[in-house]
Amino acid sequence: MSDTIIRCPSCGQANRVPDLADGKKAVCGKCKAELTAGGNGDGHGHPVTLTDASFRSSIASGKSVVDLWAPWCGPCRAIAPVIEQLAADRPDIRFAKVNVDENPSTAQAMRASSIPLLVFFKDGVETGRVVGAAPRPQLEAAIRQYLG
Fold this sequence. Notes:
By secondary structure, the chain is an alpha/beta fold. The chain has 2 domains: 32 residues, no CATH class; 100 residues, Glutaredoxin (3-Layer(aba) Sandwich). It has 4 helices and 9 strands. The chain has a 5-stranded mixed sheet with strand order 5-7-6-8-9. Strands 1-2 form a two-stranded antiparallel ribbon. Strand 3 and strand 4 form a beta hairpin. About 5% of the residues have low confidence.
């Protein structure tokens, strides 16, 4: 039997979950929300949506890639499927999205003067960034460089 790390979709806490059988369910050790297997630890294989209120606590622990974007931005829309694929393929990293129009405080704090902007974090500390709609191989190289 091997344990799986599942990040809580509610609070972001990483939880070590043993293989579950007989319909048993796992809950977050911190907030008691139900956990489901799959994806980047958010239980769904998709990037989670962060807000000004949730940003700092969400990146505080573990490895995170945050996509600062806007719905009107063509390059942001172009890179979105790549971020989705990476989120599904990399359960060891939390992928998140911040809409800069709806969350101006975070956008300003991150100095997001150009989007899309991917910011890499280890335990709440920025380790690097990629500006623009980079192709998947370039993003994978940045993940190796900035998150190990």
